[in-house]
Write a structure and sequence with these properties.
- With 675 residues, the chain is of the alpha/beta class.
- α7 packs antiparallel against α8 and α19 crosses α21.
- The relative contact order is 0.08.
- The N terminus is likely disordered.
- It folds into three domains: 316 residues, ABC transporter type 1, transmembrane domain (ABC transporter transmembrane region fold, Up-down Bundle), CATH 1.20.1560; 219 residues, P-loop containing nucleotide triphosphate hydrolases (Rossmann fold); 26 residues, no CATH class.
- It contains 26 helices and twelve strands.
- The structure holds adenosine-5'-triphosphate and magnesium ion.
- The site of magnesium ion has 5 residues, from α16.
- Magnesium ion binds next to α16.
Length: 675
């Protein structure tokens, strides 16, 4: 299946998957496909090469047995990210890291070997110095011995280089593999998040979790765990060798270590604090810029450039000041560390020099001491980085795992079955609702109505009266707080989300275009669709003639970097996209507001045949859009205040009548009555 999708070719996936037999796809597979639809679209519209995640969804769609998943499959990664749930953050990262045991073992072994070789170098150098002295004194065989040491030194250095390379390579690889799994898990989670979560959390924060926090966790192995082994070995063994050779000189050589270690740790913690602040300022900057670009027309139209520049300048100043602070902290700390290191070196030279002069020590041993000190300087300075890495992994991991473990409010109930469609009847039974972000403000109260297959229900009411909310409850964007919504007698909460959302299409008030061609935009809900169906859907939506009039027809790229469509054209594309789902319940939420009355009339006529097989809900402020409906509901403050056919409501002479009169021949008195 992966090959059929064109993993290694430039064949757009949509073409190859359209060859799949649609009936092979079970409801369970549909469920997964729903979750990954966004990802799949990005892939087959985007850079050509589908991700493993997408290939995985395709495997599911071909009913591949579960045993066919190889360890490289996305499913195993998504499940893996749940490992270690309940452990403390750092333990949990370690558990995830240990999913690549061979790489971890190779890294740590390479680390030990390269540290041992590094520690051997000063001893060899010391011996070389002594032999060189022998050569100068004309000692027998001293020159050969010097050559031998030189060759050993060369070989040791080459091997040290090779093992360091292997340590760095596998150390990074472990981090990247772990990050890869976590990234898929984060993306999978994003696909399933409830709408109420998006109401509360800023998109930027989600991106921070998926990018920055993930980085913090990725770096933990290479900059944290591995460094513990590396620095532990170098400092521990190095110190032992120094002290066991000559304890006084050893202590003098190590006297710089505590100062440097403490200083470096404090510095790194300070740098981390300023880094976090800097990060916030940079986020401010990108938010200001994002808003400016998003609202570029408003900025230009209202001559807001000067004010915008001032906002950006303020945020930039703060960022520059923090960057300065960071440079100061770094420079001060480097000076302190250098001074303490050179003071201990001077002590070693003074005391060691005396002993060499008195003949108690060879020049070679003193040279070895000094080389040891230079080698030890690096790991001691890096202790601070270790502290930083632990702190960073802990905070980033906390946020990342909290996100991954988040309970999804709207999800399949245990034992949920796919929706079984028979009559195609939609019922609202005494529905109450309040948005989770404002639980004490009822938005709907006691809403009941029924729509049968082939029927059209019109919903009208003031802005904010709760019309769109009714639409949101059918595909479970939110769950009712009282009463229930059923389709063919099945509570929408008792059926699988994927089957429900396949059966209900809501044409939203505002439409979104992906940066790809028109055909792919329309076929978003059904990657298996053939060209003829796409054309037929756009004919229903009265868009076909416009599209074929374009120089590149259905291949025309739209979206941010493509041809811009007008508001009305976007809405019609949105309608065509929803028609592709062939839903049992179709909701038009003010989706023809930007379309002229004539085109709307043509859409309505074309849709008659389509509406025969489903319940259609039309929400609109324009009465002409819904007065043909079999039943019209007039909503006010979340309650149905009037209901009936157009004629019945006119005869009733209430709010609907007033609104009708206003739209037919507006005058001040009707305006008051309609209010
Ligand atoms: N995500 C949300 N969180 C909290 N409150 C919301 C949310 N969406 C809508 N509301 C509130 O619920 C009420 C009903 O909103 P709804 O969008 O259903 O109105 P509407 O009738 O569709 O209005 P319009 O005609 O302007 O589209 C409004 O008071 C609105 O402020
Ligand atoms: Mg609305």
């Amino acid at each position: 299946m992966a090959e059929a999708c064109g993993v290694d070719t430039k064949v757009p996936c949509r073409i190859s998957i359209s060859a799949l037999n649609r009936t092979q796809i079970s409801a369970r597979d549909e469920a997964f496909l729903w979750f990954y639809r966004a990802e799949s679209v990005r892939q087959y519209f985007g850079e050509g090469r589908p991700s493993k995640l997408y290939v995985w969804t395709l495997k599911l769609s071909s009913n591949a047995p579960r045993s066919a998943y190889s360890p490289g499959d996305a499913m195993s990664h998504v499940v893996a990210a749940q490992q270690g749930k309940g452990l403390t953050t750092l333990w949990r990262i370690m558990v995830l890291t240990w999913r690549h045991p061979w790489m971890v073992i190779i890294t740590i072994l390479s680390c030990f070997i390269s540290s041992a070789l590094q520690l051997w170098t000063p001893l060899l150098l010391g011996q070389a110095v002594d032999r060189a002295e022998g050569v100068l004194d004309g000692g027998v065989g001293a020159a050969e011995a010097l050559w031998t040491i030189a060759v050993i030194l060369l070989v040791v250095s080459v091997f040290r280089g090779l093992f360091t390379m292997s340590m760095n390579y596998f150390g990074e690889a472990v981090g990247h593999h772990t990050a890869y799994e976590l990234r898929l898990a984060v993306y999978e989670k994003i696909q399933r998040l409830s709408f109420s979560y998006h109401d509360k959390v800023h998109t930027g924060d989600l991106i921070t979790v998926g990018m920055l926090d993930l980085e913090g966790v990725r770096m933990f192995f290479a900059t944290g765990l591995l460094r513990v082994v590396l620095l532990g070995t170098l400092i521990g063994v190095g110190a032992y060798m120094l002290i066991s050779t000559d304890w006084i000189l050893g202590l003098l050589a190590l006297s710089f270590a505590p100062f440097v270690a403490v200083n470096s740790s404090i510095t790194q913690l300070k740098l981390r604090a300023t880094w976090l602040m800097l990060q916030e300022r940079l986020q401010d900057l990108s938010r200001v810029m994002e808003e400016n670009l998003g609202g570029i027309r408003v900025v230009r139209a209202f001559a807001g450039a000067r004010h915008e520049m001032k906002k950006y300048n303020g945020a930039s100043d703060a960022a520059l000041k923090l960057a300065h602070d960071r440079v100061n902290i770094r420079v001060n700390s480097t000076s302190i560390m250098n001074i303490s290191f050179f003071v201990s070196m001077a002590l070693v030279l003074w005391y060691g020099g005396e002993r060499v002069i008195s003949g108690e020590m060879t020049v070679g041993t003193l040279a070895a001491f000094l080389t040891f000190m230079t080698i030890l300087q690096m790991p001691v300075r890096q202790l601070g980085l270790l502290v930083n890495s632990f702190a960073r992994a802990s905070t980033c991991g906390n946020r990342l795992f909290a996100f991954l473990d988040l309970e999804i409010e709207i999800r399949d109930e245990p034992g949920a079955k796919p929706l079984k469609l028979s009559e195609g009847t939609l019922r609202f039974e005494n529905v109450d609702f309040a948005y989770p972000s404002a639980p004490f403000r009822p938005v709907l109260a006691g809403v009941s109505f029924e729509g049968r297959k082939g029927e059209t229900i019109g919903i009208v009411g003031k802005p904010g009266s709760g019309k769109s909310t009714i639409a949101h409850l059918i595909p479970r964007f939110y769950d009712v707080t009282g009463g229930r919504v059923t389709i063919d007698g099945q509570d929408v909460r008792a059926v699988t989300l994927a089957s429900l959302r396949q059966a209900v299409a809501v044409v939203q008030q505002d439409s979104f275009l992906f940066t790809t061609n028109i055909e792919n935009n329309i076929a978003y809900g059904d990657p298996w669709a053939k060209g003829a169906r796409i054309a037929s859907a756009s004919e229903y939506a009265q868009l076909h003639n416009y599209i074929i009039g374009l120089p590149t027809g259905y291949e025309t790229i739209v979206g941010e970097r493509g041809v811009s469509l007008s508001g009305g054209q976007r809405q019609r594309l949105n309608i065509a996209r929803s028609l592709m789902l062939r839903p049992a319940v179709m909701v038009f939420d003010d989706s023809t507001a930007a379309v002229d009355a004539g085109t709307e009339q043509r859409i309505r006529t074309a849709m008659k045949r389509f509406a025969k097989d489903r319940v259609t809900l039309i929400i609109s402020h324009r009465l002409s859009s819904l007065m043909h409906a079999d039943q019209i509901l007039f909503i006010d403050e979340g309650k149905i205040v009037e209901r009936g056919t157009h004629e019945e409501l006119l005869a009733l002479g209430g709010r609907y009548r007033a609104l009708y009169d206003l739209q037919v021949k507006p005058g001040d008195d009707q305006l008051e009555a309609a209010e």
